[in-house]
Amino acid sequence: MSPASAADRVLALALDPDVTSGGDATSERILDAALDLAAASGLRHLTMDDVARRAGVGRMTVYRRFASKPALVDALTVRESRRCLARIAAALRADDPADERLAALFTATLAVIREHPLLERLARFEPEALLTELTRDDSAAFRLVREFLFGLVREGQAAGELVEGDPAVLAELGLRLGASFVLMPDSVLPLDSETQTRAAVRALIAPALRPRSRVPRRADSTRNPGPRR
Question: How many domains does the chain contain in total?
Fold first, then answer.
């Protein structure tokens, strides 16, 4: 499967079988309301009553679809993770060189981090909420992103474009690198524009991920020197 088809794969990978993100119009409206409220006031202040009022539905309607606040937050996390990953995957072009795809991946990821209303809010005011989500054993978001990156790493390795190594380890390293930009957005790296970001990735990150070139052995001058004159 090519990197360009990653957006199609996201939908299959992203939904944790134990977590539902709704799907019907009412559930989507409830999740939209939860996103708006969480982006404005944070997850800590999110209540089922406020979500119901914002969505224009009854309190019991919210509880019938999402049995508790944690279940609602889990569903919101899964939905937004899927949306973010689909956006990132759509930025990758199969016919681009590996360095360009890596630069596009990194640039799209930073754009998502900076522009997503909830991620931006959590990074600034509730970083502990992000840490809690990413470090709990059953974190849906952690698994979704890691599986997405795992697929991209395996594709790159199969094409001979990425360094050899355990793809699960490389995927997790990529995830942790991305998380660091969420939790610590200020950086001395030149990342203010897409052009600067792409240049920084090509110069600093891409070389470390290129496969090691095999240097052909030079002929040993001490062997078969030929007859002496």
Answer: 1
